[in-house]
Write a structure and sequence with these properties.
heterodimer, A: mainly beta, 7-stranded mixed β-sheet, globular, B: 0% helix
């Protein structure tokens, strides 16, 4: 079974530039998550999609971050403009997303390591 | 609200030593509890889980028991190997919040031969 695919693997940009990350979840997984993992911290949820609808984006800095999941499959996360504090690993994860599934398993991609200089 | 607190690392052990990584949680409902592991250069992957009180999750020699009375889910392994060197994350998922996952800060484990 193919896993969660993310690209690029690494990205280095200067502050105030824009950057976009791409994620292709496991086939058939309805729920897709974007997490931000700052060095030395646990993953922090940025946004959660159920199919192509947003379930939770309460921790997404909407003045600079945006995400979409057209057609309920793959997703892009964009930062515009980037700040130094955005340096982190951006993780995409997916799950089956069954209704009421309290013991759902998350499958993670390898992440995109972003460095903002 | 929901949160997870893990013991801080890093932890360094000799091969075959006993491992305990403490994890406690706060939840509004009846969460499921997980341990995820992140090997160097790889994404997080599920190590084990427990979905209700007194359940024991186990995998690859690791165990954790869901203790509702102490709101804990400590990770243990009787004899660690060099290949267990990784970062371990405790997490909970609460159906009251749309199955959102809450992660601890992670504990780095290094096992030396």
């Amino acid at each position: 079974e193919a896993g969660v695919a993310q690209s690029p693997r690494y990205k280095i940009i200067e502050k105030r530039q824009s950057v976009a990350f791409w994620c292709n979840p496991i086939s058939g997984h309805a729920t897709l998550y974007w997490y931000q993992q700052i060095l030395g911290q646990g993953p922090k949820l940025l946004i959660q999609f159920q199919n192509n609808g947003v379930v939770d984006d309460s921790q997404l800095p909407k003045d600079r971050f945006s995400a979409e999941r057209l057609k309920g499959v793959d997703s892009t996360l964009k930062i515009q403009p980037a700040k130094l504090e955005d340096s982190a690993v951006y993780l995409c994860a997916s799950s089956l997303g069954r209704s009421g599934g309290t013991n759902e398993k998350l499958f993670f991609g390898s992440g995109t390591q972003l460095s903002v200089l | 609200g929901n949160s997870v607190t893990q013991m801080e690392g890093p932890v360094t052990l000799s091969e075959e030593a006993f491992l305990t990584i403490n994890c406690t949680y706060t939840a509004t409902g009846y969460p499921s509890l997980f341990w995820y592991v992140q090997y160097p250069g790889e994404g997080l992957q599920l190590l084990l889980k427990a979905t209700k009180a007194d359940d024991k999750g186990s995998n690859k020699g690791f165990e954790a028991t869901y203790r509702k009375e102490t709101t804990s889910f400590h990770l243990e392994k009787g004899s660690v190997q060099v290949s267990d060197s990784a970062v371990y994350f405790c997490a909970l998922s609460d159906s009251n919040t749309g199955n959102q996952f809450y992660f601890g800060t992670g504990t780095s484990l290094t096992v030396i031969p």
